[in-house]
Amino acid sequence: MAGLADTLAKWYESDEILSLPENAQQPMLMMARQAASICRQSILDHAELAIASLEAGEVTEAFVKLTEVITSISGMVGGMGDAFARTTIAHEIHDAITNFPESHHFLHGHKVAYGIMVQLAYEKKWAEIDNLIPFYEHLDIPKSLSDLHLDRLDAEDIMEIARLSTKPEAPVHGLPYEVTAGLMAEAIQALDKYMANLPKL
C-alpha cells in the first residue's frame, strides 16, 4: 500500500510544473507527464483488485499492471522529466514530519500519501481531495495528522513542519506559485479541520 501511495505522488507533485505552457510541448516532459498520468490512473483503477490478488497469493492482470507501474513506469517520470518532475510538497512534508517520533513506524509511502493531501489543500483542490478520500480509506492510508498519530501537535509544531518543508533549498520553490511557511501551516491546519469534519461511517 505504501508503494502505491508513493507512486501516486508522481502525478500530484509534477502536474503543476509539467502542465505549464512552456513545458507542455517539450517531448521529454510530455512523456514524463504521460507516465505520471498512467501512474495515477492505474493505481486508482486497479489498486483494490491488485491488493486482493496479493493477499490471495494470485498473479492477476491488475497485480501485474501495478507491479509494472510501481517498478518501471514511475521511474520514467523523474527519468524523463528530470528536475521538472521530481519531488515537491508531498515529499517535503514527509521529510518534515519524520522529525516527530510518532511518525517513525509509518512507511515512507504512507507519509508521502499524507503529503499529497497537504499539497492538494495548499492548492485548494478540495474536489480532488474528496475524490481521493474513498481510495485512502479503503487502503487505510493516512490523510490527516491524527491518522499519523500526530494529533498532539500544536500550532508551533505545525509551523515547524511548514518551515522545514519550505526551506530555501527545497524543491517546492520550483512550483509555479508562491510557497511559504505561513501558507503551508494554513494548509496543514485546514486539511486537519476538513478531515475532522468528514461524516463518520
From TrEMBL:
Q: What is the lineage of its organism?
A: unclassified sequences, metagenomes, ecological metagenomes
Cross-referenced Gene3D superfamilies, in alphabetical order? Dehydroquinate synthase-like - alpha domain (1.20.1090.10)
From the Swiss-Prot or TrEMBL record, give the protein name: Hydroxycarboxylate dehydrogenase A
Gene name in the database record: hcxA_2
Q: What is its EC number?
A: 1.1.1.-
GO MF terms here are:
metal ion binding; oxidoreductase activity, acting on CH-OH group of donors
Query: Which InterPro entries does the UniProt record give?
Result: Glycerol_DH
SUPFAM superfamilies in UniProt: Dehydroquinate synthase-like (SSF56796)
Key words, A-Z = Metal-binding, Oxidoreductase
